[in-house]
Design a protein that fits this description.
Layout: E1 3-7, E2 10-11, E3 17-27, E4 33-47, H1 52-66, E5 76-80, E6 83-87, E7 97-104, E8 117-129, E9 134-144, E10 150-154, E11 162-167, E12 172-183, E13 205-217, E14 221-236
Antiparallel strand pairs: 1-2, 1-5, 3-4, 4-8, 5-6, 7-8, 9-12, 10-11, 12-14, 13-14
């Protein structure tokens, strides 16, 4: 099989490199597909006529093509026998980037390494956004008390502490906490699951967090995670009917 790799406007000679292509799916905490990472592992060897100047020049050209890991490298293609694999830059949100580059010792003998050939490797990858919009959602309600009497033991100077009822009944308290993180969308806090007439409005807290940037493709596109947290407290003399949680659609 004769293969040609085109990367960063550099066309590798036929069969100068071999590649390994793999993909990995990253899930959100809700087990929804969030990101697919396509990674190409490239291994090859520079070959020249044996002159130090020629090999050094080829190495400089290679380093200019691969050495800047922060650069967005555009489209990458590998063609063999009329079939082409493509690492797409425009479809990704990260751009095509070099995550590893270096030199290694090849399998050949006769002391030809660094004489008329130089083995090298590079790892490039791009990240693609999948369908998930809900990055994280969690919510809970804590119920404190059951309405029973309030009591305590009173200390005694001469004997055992004495049981004392302070009130025949007590209130039942509710604490609701939650958070929602969305991708490229501003989330809103959920409403209390207990009746508003039982909520301590002065204790309600809603926290909006600054967006957290995931990555960007050059200067043209930025993906952000936006999050909000909420905290409500309620109180009642009887057990309250709690409505269902507002679970976001995944």
């Amino acid at each position: 099989m004769s293969g040609v790799l085109v990367f960063n406007n550099k066309v590798h000679p036929v069969d100068e490199v071999g590649i390994k292509i793999d993909s990995r799916i990253i899930e959100s905490p809700n087990k929804e597909p969030l990101t697919r990472i396509d990674r190409w592992t490239i291994a090859g060897a520079l070959v020249n006529d044996g002159s130090p100047e020629g090999l050094n020049g080829a190495m400089r050209d290679l380093e200019l093509a691969y050495a800047d890991g922060a650069q967005n490298y555009g489209e990458v293609s590998y063609t063999a026998n009329g079939n082409t694999h493509t690492l797409s830059d425009t479809a990704s949100f990260s751009g095509v980037r070099v995550v590893s580059f270096g030199y290694m010792t090849g399998p050949w003998k006769m002391h030809t390494e660094m004489s008329n050939r130089r083995a090298f490797y590079a790892v490039i990858q791009a990240e693609y956004r999948l369908s998930a919009k809900v990055i994280k959602y969690q919510e809970q309600v804590l119920r404190i008390g059951n309405g029973g009497p309030r009591w305590r033991y009173m200390p005694s100077l001469t004997g055992a502490p004495e049981y004392q009822t302070l009130s025949a009944a007590t209130t039942i308290k509710y604490v609701q906490r939650g958070m929602l993180v969305l991708l490229d969308e501003l989330p809103e806090a959920n409403e209390p699951v207990f009746p508003l007439v039982n909520m301590h409005g002065e204790r309600a807290r809603i926290t909006y967090h600054a967006p957290k940037s995931i990555t960007k493709n050059g200067d043209s596109q930025t993906e952000d995670m936006h999050s909000v947290e909420w905290h409500y407290e309620g109180e009642s003399a009887i057990f309250l009917f709690l409505s269902s949680f507002e679970v976001p659609e995944l």
